[in-house]
Amino acid sequence: MYRMYDIITKKKQGLPLTEGEIRFFIEGYTAGSIPHEQASALCMAICLRGMTMEETAVLTDAMANSGDTVDLSAFGEYSVDKHSTGGVGDKTTLIVAPLVASLGGKVAKMSGRGLGHTGGTVDKLESIPGYRTSLSPEEFFEISRRVGVCVVGQSGVLAPADKKLYALRDVTATVDCIPLIASSIMSKKLAGGARSIVLDVKCGSGAFMKTPAEAKALAQAMVEVGEKCGRRVRALITNMDVPLGTHIGNALEVKEAVKILRGEQEDDLYRVCIALASNMLSLVHGWSVEEAEAGCIAAIRDGRAYAKLLEWIAAQGGDTSVLEDLSRLPVSPVCYALCAPETGYIAHMATDGIGTAACLLGAGRATKEDTIDPAAGIVLQAKTGDYVEKGQCIAYLHTSSEALLPAAERAFLESITMDSKPPVENPLIFTR
Ligand code: URA
Predict the structure, then answer these.
(1) Ligand 1 pocket, 222 CB below 6 A?
(2) What pTM did the predictor assign?
(3) Is the CB of 144 under 6 A from ligand 1?
């Protein structure tokens, strides 16, 4: 019989916990027999003393098995998932999921909503009239089998230990700890059932991890934990020191995703999507990344990826006429041209601040209960490294009411640093 007091003491002394101790903690905390104060003390001890990779893998496995798990074994080697650690303008799932499905992958995926300055895939999909983010397990499986892609909201019974622990960590200053972040993310991915997983670990001012070194440590922990738990895992570290693409906000991001899938835009967003999709397909089919990249580019150019997007959205009840005619997506009554305050180069964009500006326009939530405005957001006309003249439009702010503009404009301008010299360019993809 274990005692939480002893487990906390052991970790406080920096000693590794046994498998039995870790499973006792997760089972007891999920069931409610271990109180929040003891769970909170253990989380703090883990933050201060760390965990070995073996402990992190056991913690992840225990959390993944704390509730329902999705069985995708019928898809064999073809089931594949992706996860982004969150950012601003990150609509990669909308592009990568149908692209990978058009080349034989099975993307049966659960996605989250936006919180704080970051957006969420489920909110973006709900800006398409009729799209259903909640399906029965049978429908979820059937659409994944028939179409090759299905994206729904996170079910409450998937990894309930993580749900409870994450809420606790949020109020006890124990979020920024690599073993706890890695186990939190990977427990949900493992419970989601995919055989292969590609992680997009964001790095920079719009991300959790601010430096490439921090992002690399998190990526390595997640890959190692996933592999110890029997999955094929790869991670890319990508730049989130500038918003991804040009559109931020739910319907606006759907619009940009459609343009990429139609082959009308080949920018930073396109390149990150090709990198993610080709790594997913390389795991699924055993192709080299270069072969997979060529396949992705061809599927976009010949229309297969876009056709798969329409098939997927229709299968989940969405009105595909708004994708075929993008002017029919929700549109804001107010569109304000925000101008450069001075002449010079945009030296830096504090990307979390840009995300906050989009939220202030109505595109995001401050609390889980807030409703979002699907049409609100920002369309960037200039990004880091661009030279602009004073008074030139650098972004369009879309919103439902002029009263929301001043605070959003202030947040946007406070996030921009101007300089007379061009900034040193960051790589888009730091490492794999
Ligand atoms: N995202 C998660 O799901 N969990 C964390 O701990 C941090 C980010």
Answers:
(1) no
(2) 0.94
(3) no
